[in-house]
Amino acid sequence: MADADRIREVADHVRRCRNRGDQVVLVVSAMGKETDVLLRLANEVSKTQPGREMDLLITAGERKACALVAMALTDVGVPSASFTGSQAGFLTDTNHRNAKILEINPTRIRDAIDEGMVPIVAGSQGVSADKDVTFLGRGGSDTTAVALASVLDADSCELYTDVSGVFTTDPRVVQNARKMPTISFDEMLEMTAVGCPKPVMRSVEVAQRFRVPLHVRSAFTWEPGTLVIEEDPNMEQAIVTAVVPDTSEAKVTVCGVPDRPGIAAGLFRALADAEVNVDMIVQNVSDEGVTDISFTVPTEQTADAARIAGEKIEDEDCTVETDESIGRVSVVGAGMKSNPGVAATMFETLAANDINIEMISTSAIRISCVVRADDVDKATQVLHDAFELGV
Amino acid sequence: MADADRIREVADHVRRCRNRGDQVVLVVSAMGKETDVLLRLANEVSKTQPGREMDLLITAGERKACALVAMALTDVGVPSASFTGSQAGFLTDTNHRNAKILEINPTRIRDAIDEGMVPIVAGSQGVSADKDVTFLGRGGSDTTAVALASVLDADSCELYTDVSGVFTTDPRVVQNARKMPTISFDEMLEMTAVGCPKPVMRSVEVAQRFRVPLHVRSAFTWEPGTLVIEEDPNMEQAIVTAVVPDTSEAKVTVCGVPDRPGIAAGLFRALADAEVNVDMIVQNVSDEGVTDISFTVPTEQTADAARIAGEKIEDEDCTVETDESIGRVSVVGAGMKSNPGVAATMFETLAANDINIEMISTSAIRISCVVRADDVDKATQVLHDAFELGV
């Protein structure tokens, strides 16, 4: 919610849902860029930024939004009441800035529903056993919503996002991308893992774990979006569901790594300790006792990753190369498991269009290829056509 | 605190106080104009503005400031921890937007002090018996500070304001105004009652009730300010301590009011019900069964007051007049009680300077005169000279 107008629109939408007979519980995140503003303020004030204080600071954003939505609902005649994370019964561990929910005791939320009210819950927050305010991390409001939907036995959890649903590919890249009415949790997780934007992966994982159907929809058009549900084993599965482009990563290659046990382990442990988000990892077969290891990291971590890799292997006769001009295109589909021809079709399609594949990585229901960044859009388009995903 | 720089200055000041051997507990209010910004947002979103939601919204400001100060202190090596109103043990009634403190259980604050920490407490907030967030009202952070100083048995409560202390008169009006090293609670209350700016009256009342010495000082220069203490009966009292100008009010006069019991009562009850802040009230002796009643109200409430007065006396042969071009000048002094000549000196001084007195009202230690608004500065200057208050 960016401003007062948006808050009133949300209130109006809730009123309509309620008039259709739905019981509604609302979870709100902070308004617009407020969380960014608060983080900037903390950077100006403090280098140490103790987690306990950061959490008190950041959770203020959700609390404000929560109060404003409750007011706006009262204005349109919908009885409602705000609840902070603590009031909503979210008990968490003491891992500040990224707390985990330990238990939810939503007594006050249930009471409010029973009284015919719409409870408005401040997202991404809870209270620890030390009675301190805790923050569930960026995007934690989605987690709050899913967890609450689960514990309240809700029919579904609607995530209002800036996209109108989950598409067969990025509609900005491919004109005839198609919005999917449903998608399985597994496919959704693979898509978010390779760069499909919202909702954040953690909320999808939580929804899958608690079997809460997710409805990913637009907060701007209010049209029905995509239902994320458990795979129906009786349903015939599309072989390929979606093509996901991603240009947010860079490639780091360590050349001439001695083929001895423990070298790669030491390298990736050092990267993990430095909180570098390593994504794809590819190691080729050894050639005369040395090998090349390539991996991808978020572009902004490229320099860090290269420095750490360099330090880790400085005693060896290795070189580290980085390449920020790469991109990735992935095809995702639950039906892939029983259809071994997908990889072949993917590679043939890319080759036929003169697109060179630099790295390959696969999971049971996903195949990802690293290509030149300039080729990502074209690759997405031709794969989308090849697997006949368009409207 | 307006910005990050100010927060770091506050942290530095606390560090110095601590190095001098003081045990410090800090109470913080919201940053700069944040409370105004939040109120404006609420106005954009809602007409109803339920009190419970308003309190959740507004208290976010103090919480943010609290977290930021705690971070800044950690940065300068002072162990500190933030505490919300609830964590600091402020239990209040459920009178949202203007809650009263019922009880303070500062266990966590005491523990933090015992551990050598500086507790940072979010001002103007508490938790009600319904476990809802409550707001103590505008300026409530001063009240929080005074109440906490009392319950912790602090040596004094320092109020950091935008003035460097309490002056014999407004230094913007009179060049040689003098900062007073001490002033009694009674005098301070009379001064704030007639327009002397900070600290707010409520905190002075609370400080007097709990016998907490107040130190009114500047948050910008850090120099010692004015100590507000109990009157020492053995001390020789200055006859006049201060001259207070005030141009924030307007005069409403109801002419030709029948001299019957209950007329004035009905009028002021109606004004009170409409939350019009009536200040001075003057009624002259009756002349042939009718009288004039004049009273002052904040300028912005003039129209409301006139309308209500008009409705209340519409059956009578009365007229209502308003005058926004008035001002008030007051002399305050605890020694006045045993010195009946003060009023005479005041009236003579004003007369000698051609300043006409339109209304007079007195208390045991204050005399206020309403004059033309244009005359207020001159009246302040000549009275300040007449009572020899200058440097």
Can you tag this structure with a few keywords?
Carbamate kinase, four-stranded mixed beta sheet, homodimer, 391 residues, alpha/beta, 11 helices, 19 strands, 35% helix
CATH homologous superfamily placement of the domain at 4-229 in chain A? Acetylglutamate kinase-like
What's the main sheet of chain A like? 4 strands, mixed
Number of strand elements of chain A: 19
Helix content of chain A: 25-40%
Written overview of the protein:
Two copies of one chain form a homodimer. Chain A has a domain at 4-229: Carbamate kinase (3-Layer(aba) Sandwich), CATH 3.40.1160.10. The first copy, chain A, has eleven helices and 19 strands. Chain A has helices spanning 4-19, 34-45, 51-75, 107-114, 140-151, 185-193, 201-210, 263-273, 302-312, 341-352, 376-386; strands at residues 26-28, 80-83, 90-92, 101-104, 118-122, 125-128, 133-135, 157-161, 182-184, 214-218, 226-229, 242-246, 249-258, 281-283, 290-298, 319-323, 326-332, 359-363, 366-372. In chain A, strands 4-3-6-7 form a four-stranded mixed β-sheet. In chain A, α10 (341-352) crosses α11 (376-386). The longest helix of chain A has 25 residues, at 51-75. At the A-B interface, α1, α2 and α3 of A face α1, α2 and α3 of B.
What is shown here, in short?
The structure is a homodimer of 391-residue chains. By secondary structure, chain A is an alpha/beta fold.
Please specify the SSE layout and strand pairing.
Two copies of one chain form a homodimer.
Chain A: H1 4-19, E1 26-28, H2 34-45, H3 51-75, E2 80-83, E3 90-92, E4 101-104, H4 107-114, E5 118-122, E6 125-128, E7 133-135, H5 140-151, E8 157-161, E9 182-184, H6 185-193, H7 201-210, E10 214-218, E11 226-229, E12 242-246, E13 249-258, H8 263-273, E14 281-283, E15 290-298, H9 302-312, E16 319-323, E17 326-332, H10 341-352, E18 359-363, E19 366-372, H11 376-386
Parallel strand pairs in A: 1-5, 2-5, 3-6, 8-10, 9-11
Antiparallel strand pairs in A: 3-4, 6-7, 10-11, 12-17, 13-15, 13-16, 14-15, 17-19, 18-19
Helix pairs in contact in A: 1-3, 2-3, 5-7, 6-7, 8-9, 10-11
